[in-house]
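Technical note accompanying the year-one report. For the benefit of new consortium partners, we illustrate the data format agreed upon in the data management plan: each record pairs a sequence with a structure-token string. No post-processing was applied to the example shown here.
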Amino acid sequence: MMFRGFNTSLLIALLPLLSVRGEYDLQECMALGGQRSKCITDGMLVIISDHVAWDDWEAWYDVMKDFWTEDMIYDSNWTPNRDFSNNTGLREFFDHEHIPFNLAFDNTTFAKMIGVGEEFTSSILWYAKATWIGDLGTVPGSQHIGQEVTIWDLDFYKIDESGTRIAYNWCLIDFVDLMRQIGYQVLPKPALREGFMLPPAAMDGIPAPISRLVNPEHSLISKMIIQELLTTDFVSGSEPSSSWKEDMVWYGGAGFGMATSKAEYEEHILGPLRKGLSSRELALDVLNCEGAYCGAHGYIKGVHSGVWLGEEPTGLPISIRIAIHWRIDIGAETVPECWAMFDLPAAFNMIGVNLFERMTEQYRM
């Protein structure tokens, strides 16, 4: 995610690792306890944080090229006009994500809540505060200039075989929530609270976790728990995984809302998903864990054979893109918190529904 406004605390923390020429010292970052993948992605974010060349392709490319492979892929939300979408190479990334985002939001300030890293993968959960100045993906921000907006953002990264550059960036923002904030309820209003997520309810740092304090054994425990949870919840189970705490909190995007117990999670999230989608399979691109935190990006694939999020069954194949983070209680081997985002416009487009076209008076709140 590229942005003009930036949380300066990250810049201040990493400034000592920048040489006078602006080059990022990966080895020094790792020597200070940083995780390789997070050192690379954080370095990229620091280098662009002054945004002097944000709208100058040649200068921007010169600054960014050493952080990315030439054939890097930026893989983001489906939109009708190709804002975000899937892009190969920095030029497409610049044209279809970086510029549209910066022309839609003014003075964007990001807050990173979770940053998980393994050697060659990492993931970030952010939210941002800004004001609208233009349209994005056909969401008519230009009709709401000056209105405050909250942007939920998830990024997953894969580092190349050399261990020095980003080869793949999966990114999701909650477009359905952006529609909701300007007055369109394009999905049935859920019983649970929408548009609300909090940082982890633990003193693990902000963002969590702090890499140099992580016990590698805890990362292995976390991964085993989440692997079982993913399979039980989304593929084979008839109820939520036993790994969830009874008073767990599941922060979901627009259309789902925030479940504050295992019972609410089953009633409002998992139960409807099982009824709506049959022949379910799970395909993961990334599952990385660091200490008590895990992140996963992938797809729940199945057949739309029942009512789901208000849509009558179509019998069509559907693939729901997911980007999820969890906090694990290592001592109890339970999961108390989760943050989940789904690319619902892409999923609904597969069953013949364009959620962007619902921004009409019929769906105005």
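Partners are asked to follow this layout when depositing records. The longest strand covers residues 277-290.
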